[in-house]
Amino acid sequence: MPITVVKDLPAIAKLAEENIFVMDTVRAETQDIRPLQILIVNLMPTKEVTETQILRALSNTPLQLDITLLHMASHKAAHTSEHHLSSFYRTFDEIKDKFYDGMIITGAPIELMPFEEVNYWQELTEIMDWSENHVYSTLYICWGAQAGLYYHFGIDKELLPTKLFGVFENEVLNKRPMLLRGMDEIFYMPHSRHTTVSVDEIKANPNLEILAASEKAGAAIVRSLDNKHIFVFGHSEYDRDTLQREYERDKNLGLDIDVPENYYPDDDPTKAPIVRWRSTGTLIFTNWLNYYVYQETPYIIEQIQKMKQQRNC
């Protein structure tokens, strides 16, 4: 939460230079507080695992969040029961008349397929279109980030020569944006994907900025300059054993898979994995919620549409 001080206190400018968010009393007294409405579009097949990971990452904020879980009506889930979906999830038709302060679109293990061949691509694009006037800021994860970057900015994914699998070092390229407040200049993030996006194409787009990148993994965190689209190409929400379970699954299936990089001590899968990314995940989710959602979204949530229309004029 921000520090609140008397308006025009000289320290405000100094703290702002250090990327510390300070709210003066005039603004604080005019703020109205309400729960934030957050929509999670869960595209992963093991929905219960993913929803737990995302909710854990969101839980570190002191803000009150009202969560809506969404699944694709155009896709039949093979690894989640109909009872679970009908009890805890909604479809787009059920929520399309509502407004949300923030939305999260998860990854999906389908990166080898062209976007247009994904059986729920049309439904997902409808959601992304709808979000332009019904959601204030969207956080996209892994395949979701590639899909959002492709649909909104025309940057397609590219096939990697080998699977990117492990925990990789990333460097902060611009520490000024509030999304990276408190983050180390070098941080780690798990990746598990066969595709990437072109750093050069992102840099060539005047509406996008790479905030952090890795020599091995490429772009790690990208934002649109209006902060309405945040793309995270790794999985800072992963549990300690997520990569291990994937590795063991593929080994048991007889697939050719390497030990995940920088994950086990001495690359020895008999040893417990080292968690290097938990604090990074906490900062990404809490900073996004606080600075790009809570501090910006209108108190009357229906005004999101009006605010976005005014910004686009």
Q: How do the helices and strands line up, and which of them pair or pack?
A:
Elements (H helix, E strand, L loop, with lengths): L2 E3 L5 H7 L4 E3 H6 L5 E6 L5 H12 L6 E6 L11 H7 E2 L1 H4 L4 E6 L15 H14 E7 L1 H11 L3 E16 L13 E12 L1 H6 L3 E7 L3 E7 L4 E4 L9 H11 L25 H17 L9 H9 L1
Parallel strand pairs: 1-2, 3-4, 3-6, 4-5, 6-7, 7-12
Antiparallel strand pairs: 8-9, 8-10, 10-11, 11-12
Q: How would you describe this structure in keywords?
A:
single chain; 313 residues; alpha/beta; Rossmann fold; ten-stranded mixed sheet; two-stranded parallel ribbon; 11 helices
How would you explain this protein's 3D organization?
The protein is α/β, with parallel strands linked by helices. It has two domains: 1-31, no CATH class; 34-241 and 279-312, Class I glutamine amidotransferase (GATase) domain (Rossmann fold, 3-Layer(aba) Sandwich), CATH 3.40.50. Helix content is 33%, strand content 25%. It has eleven helices and twelve strands. The protein has helices spanning 11-17, 25-30, 47-58, 82-88, 92-95, 121-134, 143-153, 199-204, 242-252, 278-294, 304-312; strands at 3-5, 22-24, 36-41, 65-70, 89-90, 100-105, 135-141, 157-172, 186-197, 208-214, 218-224, 229-232. The strands form two sheets. A ten-stranded mixed sheet has the order 5-4-3-6-7-12-11-10-8-9, sandwiched between helices. A two-stranded parallel ribbon has the order 1-2. Strand 11 (218-224) and strand 12 form a beta hairpin. The radius of gyration is 20 Å and the shape is globular. 36% of the residues are buried.
